[in-house]
């Protein structure tokens, strides 16, 4: 009955379209084949759109000289039948192009036929990336390549922080085509694909249920579904039945289903509730609204027995395809279209006997140049397929869906298509999308990862360490169970307790419990890559080469590689140790300022006419040395000298106190210094160094240039101690190169006599290793940060390490060193400034007084001369007497300097007595000056 209805529908459509096409006379007919599955939802939607497209196009272009004549064929979802229909259209109807077929598997063969016959094959539904225009030059994809949506899917997964996803696809050309592109993009975004679920298109409900139960036993809860709408309907109904549409699950559906979401049965849509879908975005327009109304009415006429359906993007693409073909036909004309028949002696079924269209290449060229704004948006076939524009991300709720955001290549994910529009500000920790109602009507973002209750336990790989404080592994003789203890184990167990979900685990031994050298740590870490363990714990250093096959958690210990070397007393307590508290520069500076201060004090007193500083040069040198050491009030008379002396005494007090303290420390405290300060010293001197057997430090030492004969392996801390105590020259080692956490353990037991130098090399510390892309990594790293950042880690370290930090040799040793000039720079500046400013002030005062005395003497001289002249005028002296007065004046002026010196030494009375030529007035003035100067000393 169904086949009969489809045949009747096909005849009616062909007759109706033929009548419409032949209603106008004088037009050139262009034969076009259409191959669709008329019983499928997509086929029914497309046929209605195609009939409306013909009516609308020729109603808008009544003056065109060409008219399309469609020859519609039903493939009945069969690849062989579709190929036979294509051959029939080419052989018997000489069609210039074929629109369709619907499936990608059909399009591959039919496109190859089109290439041989030079007939363009245009499909608006064949989306598989395996259909490559480069290998099929006459194939045109009037739709999007499936690979166009993989970046949108990967961006969505990244936005929610999921690190694993399982693709579920049908085993057809359409289903398989997208997978390589999807996996590549996911891996580029650090999303791991642990499993691929393949569903045959003919799978029964039991087969689907069995596969779903298999998925439930896995940890991953993020699924990407890529299949036809028919198979997807059955799949999601069964997924709901088995409980996989509940809280914690994530479903992402590709556009093959979501583009038809409005036409699916309500029960199917309800079974998809909570899923995300990738939907091709169609811009809204008045033309689209009007066409949708007309299309709904026509669809009911074309399919009177079917339930109402809604227009999908496939209907819009089929509509725009007819417009593109009709425009190309008009430009080419096709008035002289012919098919050149190839001569073949084989049977008529030989494909080589097909004719070739003379206008095919030109017709294809015009089709590829089609660019216009159609009902689906921008319709551009210049790349032999539609270009990626914008995808709409939807959330299926109830019997419908709602928009949660958009994606395009320029802006990535966003809540709004136009980012310039105002939007609610979300937390930076949330994706830039609208809230989602997840499966189970949950509003919490799923983790995308669960430990299944019925699944196996987490296999935790462990191995014994040479330092059992970190990890010690034992085997229970009765039960055979593996038991692990130590700091590394406690940190792991505390982190697991903090996880927001239960994680059952069991310890699995690597090697033997007693043998700590069974296999390298690289081999141990590699076990997670080959799925022997889910996670490996212990004192595992995070190294670059190990990240190629494993992912590491955050470190839980300090990082770095350092050296353990013996220490020795750095101070030689010999005869000249009293000189070591001060550096040579400090000694020299102190002596220079010592002499300078003495010179300044002597000069100040000399300028102040202190008779106690007069005398021979040896006496003045003695006074110069004497002044800075002692304070004598009888010797220092000037106020400036006392200021200089106070500052100098403060300087001496600080320096002598520091000198005494430093010398005492050198004499009483043992100052230990490492015998080696740099690993390059060991390399140059050819010393032997040690390392822990099995550690990667051996490779590091060889990279630094140490020969194999200069490197010795040891197993235990006692072995290290014995080797270090013997030294390199006595069959031991000069230094131990080890990781910092181990060194602290060693120094906690052997503190005296050794110290740590470094770190000499950076390392990331100890962490746990998991398989690449394991979603547990993020959760356990967060939990470890919680453990290591609180009091829990302190208690764990005290439990296993004790108080190893009490050893004073851990870290760089800084003993008392000699005092330098720079340590007392401020004091030197202060005493130097005080001395220099004092001597400058004294010189200014001295110059001022000297100038003042000279002025007074000149004034007195002039006054005396004036008195003598006056007296001569009154007494009318003789010429001889005048001459005597003049001589007396000259004699007085000539002896002025001598009188001044005598005045300074003996006083005014002695000057007047020793020089009979000095007038009484000059003697009185000089005495007054002398008395005034002696009254105040500065």
UniProtKB/TrEMBL annotation:
This is Glutamate receptor. InterPro entries: ANF_lig-bd_rcpt (IPR001828), GABAb_receptor_plant_PBP1 (IPR044440), Iono_Glu_rcpt_met (IPR001508), Ionotropic_Glu_rcpt (IPR015683), Iontro_rcpt_C (IPR001320), Iontropic_Glu_rcpt_pln (IPR017103), Peripla_BP_I (IPR028082). The chain crosses the membrane at residues 586-607, 639-659, 827-848. One of its GO terms (biological process) is monoatomic ion transmembrane transport. Disulfide bonds join 751-807. It is a multi-pass membrane protein. SMART domains: PBPe (SM00079). Its main location: membrane. Belongs to the glutamate-gated ion channel (TC 1.A.10.1) family. Residues 894-906, 928-938 have a biased composition (Basic and acidic residues). The record marks 676 as: Crucial to convey clamshell closure to channel opening. It is found in: Cell membrane; Membrane. Residues 457-803 form the Ionotropic glutamate receptor C-terminal domain. One of its GO terms (cellular component) is plasma membrane. Residues 1-20 form the signal peptide. L-glutamate binds at residues 541, 546, 739. It comes from the Eukaryota. Keywords: Cell membrane, Disulfide bond, Glycoprotein, Ion channel, Ion transport, Ligand-gated ion channel, Membrane, Receptor, Signal, Transmembrane, Transmembrane helix, Transport. The keyword Transmembrane applies. It holds the Pfam family Lig_chan. It comes from Urochloa decumbens.
